[in-house]
Amino acid sequence: MELEHKFCRLGGEVTLRDGHVIEGYASLFGVADQGGDTVMAGAYGASLRRLAAAGGRVKMLWQHDPARPIGVWEQVTEDARGLRVRGRLLTDVAQGREAAALLEAGAIDGLSIGYRTRKARKTEKGRRLLSELDLWEVSLVTFPMLPEARVQAKRDETDGTPLRSLAASLEAARRQLGTP
């Protein structure tokens, strides 16, 4: 089985705030993506139980690159709407700082899941209904598959001021140090 990816723009409830916390939906149930696949309610349950039993976690990556973790997902749960995630960007990691700045600027606004399909069936129109998935990772991405959702708010970890001020401070420090 090959690792697959599904992209979902961050939904209206998704925020970046309080210590670079990201929360929202990485996947929505019953919504066909641009590739014609629909994730069904309960598709992640068995995978999340297996991960928890093994002491594992769903990874937070940058653009699905396993060499570029940018944070940690502290909660990954299914509810009636979809796969809800809550985690934090690690701004001690260069890519985590960059991700925070790019989110603030609106240059990226997507989430994408990396998974393997365990159970699926085809519809009469050749589309897939995904009923069981092994979830490996949720990435921040540039191009999501579900274009109707957006990032709602972005805040930094100190006093709730916009991340733009943090990004400007980091850029000024970088210029002072003369680093590219």
From TrEMBL:
Q: Where is this region: Disordered?
A: 152-180
Q: Which GO terms describe its molecular function?
A: peptidase activity
| InterPro entries linked to this entry | Peptidase_S78_dom (IPR054613), Prohead_protease (IPR006433)
Q: Which GO terms describe its biological process?
A: proteolysis
Q: Which UniProt keywords apply?
A: Hydrolase, Protease, Viral release from host cell
Q: Source species, please?
A: Histidinibacterium aquaticum
Q: Which Pfam families does the UniProt entry name for this protein? A: Peptidase_S78
Does Glycosyltransferase appear among the keywords?
no
Q: What is this protein called?
A: HK97 family phage prohead protease
**Prohead serine protease domain: residues covered:** 18-158
Start-end of Low complexity biased regions: 163-180
